[in-house]
Amino acid sequence: MAVFTQMTKAQRTGLLFVILILFIDMLLYSLLIPIVPYFSETLKPSSTMMGILFSSYAVAMLLATPIFGPISDRLGRRAVLLVGLIGLAASTLLFAFSDTMALLITARFVQGIAAAATWPTALALLADLFPPKMRGAVMGTALTAISTGTLLGAPIGGWLFEISDHRMPFLAAAAFTVINIVLVFLFLKEEAARTASEKLAVGGFLRNPQVVFIAGIVLLAEVSLCLLEPTLPVFLTQKFSITPTAIGLLFAAMTLAYGLIAPVAGSLSNRFNPYKLMFAGIVLLAVFMPSLVWAGSLWQAGIAMALVGAGVGFTLSPTLPTLGSIIDQGGSGAYGTAYALFNMFHGIGMVAGPLAGGILTDLLPVSSAILVVAAAVLGFGIMLFLQLKASGAVRVSSSKGEMHSS
């Protein structure tokens, strides 16, 4: 894309480091998945303890994100990124040498705190480096790095586990993270000194109709995605009698489609009304979700998974540059605080999705629960868009991709 040929050396370096940081973050997040059976067999945890293990990441991220976003606005992106990467390395080493569930949960909690430092700060760094007309494409690329890390974490972890032992995936990931720390320390240049103007009135920001709409869209997309992770494998296994490897490939198709569509949707948000793109993504997601239930064969299920992943990617990608543009409207450079709020919406979805899925599948068959969720996503998406239109808070020039207050 033309936008990448227009980058300065500083912009290319910053984007490269953001890609590496977000990639390693999500690689570490999914690295645990293939090693769970080993811990289940050796430590004999209850289902409740396993639930706490997986939810502790999102809980820690929710608690720590409001702290790190504003800190990066005041102290600078480089320092907070280094703190987050050091936390990721420490949590990964703790995973490698954990021999109790308490230590595993602690490691996952520390990992969530580290992600609270890296995610919003990395996105804020992109907003610092790139003008609004370039942010859509680069933010979409950042989302692709996230999906790639998620996609590769489980198979890499499983392969390293098989050729060695349960510690090897974590030790290898820790080594990769340490290399990343050294590179950031040596080559990522600190931006100009922070200014007093880089503050955000969080209360007013959250009352902004545009931000309310984005928050609602992020929650709908994340809840839908995270709801499928614990419920869909059981449904597909029962329907098609498939192996865990096949389940993994189906989810890989969803993640791959997400990663491929994200930069496309990000680029489109520079040319068209991003709010209409987000709404279109939610409508597509709601339309595609029932195909998961109606798929009559394995290849149809794979196509359905890819369509759902593409729907989520198309929905979420325009939210990132649009949040940056809202900050620009206010004349503030407090991108760290803004993307910390995005991270919080993301974390709430990670917690609420599996919880909603568990409640619904206790009351309904999985197929019915997915149809109910699709209808709810469509209904709430329409309601959010109508509220945004009624507020008259924004209009977008599609020729320039610039937002203006009415």
UniProtKB/TrEMBL annotation:
What species was this sequence derived from?
Answer: Brevibacillus parabrevis
Which coarse location class describes where this protein primarily resides? Answer: membrane
Q: Major facilitator superfamily (MFS) profile domain: which residues?
A: 14-391
Q: How does it sit in the membrane?
A: Multi-pass membrane protein
User: Is-annotated flag, keyword Electron transport?
Assistant: no
CDD domains named among the record's database cross-references: MFS_MdtG_SLC18_like
Intracellular or extracellular location(s): Cell membrane
**Top-level taxon of origin:** Bacteria
Q: What is this protein called?
A: Multidrug efflux MFS transporter NorA
Among PANTHER family, the record links this protein to:
GH10249P
| Alphabetized UniProt keyword annotations | Membrane, Transmembrane, Transmembrane helix, Transport
